[in-house]
Amino acid sequence: MALLALASITTAMASSSSAAAGPTGLSYPSGFDMKTSWANLSPYTDASGFNVSKGFPLECELSQVHVLHRHAQRYPTQWPLDGGGMENFAQKLVNYTKKHSNKKIGPGPLAFLNDWEYMLGLNTLLHTGAATEATSGAQFWSQYGRLLYRAEHGDAAWDPSLNVYPNGTARPKPTFRTTSYPRILESARWWLSGFFGNTGANSSYSEYNLTIIPEVEDFNNTLSSTDSCPKGMEPGDNAAGVFASSLVKNARKRITAHLPEDLKLDTLDILAMFSMCPYEYATLGQSSFCALFTEQEWRDFEYYIDLQFYGSYGFGSPSGRAQGIGYVQELAARLQSKLIRSSDSSINHTYDDNTKTFPLDQPLYMDMSHDDIIVSVLAALGLDYFKYGPHGLPVSVAHAPPRNFNLNQMTPFGARLFSEIWTCPKDVSFKNLQVQKYKNPDLSSKSDTTDYIRFVLNNAPVPLYGLKVCDGSVNGFCKVKKFLSAIPNLNKEAMYQEACYGDYNITSQVGNGQPRKP
């Protein structure tokens, strides 16, 4: 990896800190990989697992897959704790250099700051992000697309002739969805390019239709639901702000010991230095900032971001469930082959009441979106595996506690949530799953079959406890009829109107993604 090409500065940085802090550097005695603690800024890797067995039931037919996908590597946003903070840090160094032209900023381990320049832009999808999306689309074709569209021996890539109903008649051209935000739209195009796999490396636009839903303030869009649900995000920002002081305490002492006394760094500056590492890695392939922090500090950095997301978009937010319920309602509508005539959530029924923009009965659906949407959908589904407790994630702690809510596992760049639909014969067993499925059986003519749904997050099946109608499910497989029976209650628990527009003032984390107990 490019990170390993950097020279270690372990000895110099550790010498100015307590022994308990541990070494800094690019590699650690424990074998710790810092990229696993970059939270939602981590490059994509499959999740290590959520305590549910992976694999496929051989006797079942894979009949549908619904993909909710995150955009991939990008430049930072303008948010003060993201790009705004890094720009301010860079400007602080520029201003200091102008006032002290004959004075170096950083001797020793911070010597790179003497020649460092801020090279990042704002919001743009990076080439590394385009590659992540194209790879994801290609991998999906290999793992799922070949089964869904029944590719035969020698069929290396998609061909329109594969897009047929079981009786052999042609299906309409597939339609996929994205928001209008440039990095989301571009991510969708790159994913689809990978899926359709043009051998000439030219555009795949002719193979599909793309519904582009505006991502603007006060506009209903399930793929950017915070635009139409303005409340409930304060608890995450507050929790992260409290923990930030613990996160930066030792690092600031250690780093400022190598800086001129009149160059003062505050909490936001140290947070910016943390963030420079993953962003420069995504942009430039390496970053000198990465070697400045200890293993524990990187683990705490991830927790700092986890706190913000949990309290703003997940079970810790009073609108966490509400932000994700619109997508859950759309999933239910697709499973029932129904258009959506009206909306009491973030759904835009102008789009969802039209088969041209909200098609029914496709084998594959793909919606390109954001990391926070995946988090809120998991909350809207009531999947308690990702819930910490009645008061949210701990805030007044010295270090990150053990937890199941880890953004590195949930929403790295290019994250993907699959809702698999399996049609299975009577008395199927989900206990002994196979790691490889070469053929997709055609059960369309069979009468005694049952449809099952399974949620797979970053190629790891998700446990269903918390979704009470699916109690007793084996390895994450729940009957579709049972899942659909839960939708009215999930709608009720989301409390959309109250959560998004209610007269409440909640500043601390809640326990169940709601503004109050039902």
Automatic annotation (TrEMBL):
Signal peptide positions on this chain: 1-21
Keywords: Disulfide bond, Glycoprotein, Hydrolase, Signal
GO molecular function: acid phosphatase activity
Record protein name field: 3-phytase
Classification via InterPro entries: His_Pase_clade-2, His_PPase_superfam, Histidine_acid_Pase_euk
Cystine pairings recorded for this chain: C60-C424, C277-C290
Pfam families: His_Phos_2
Active site per the UniProt annotation: H71 (nucleophile), D371 (proton donor)
Classification via CDD domains: HP_HAP_like
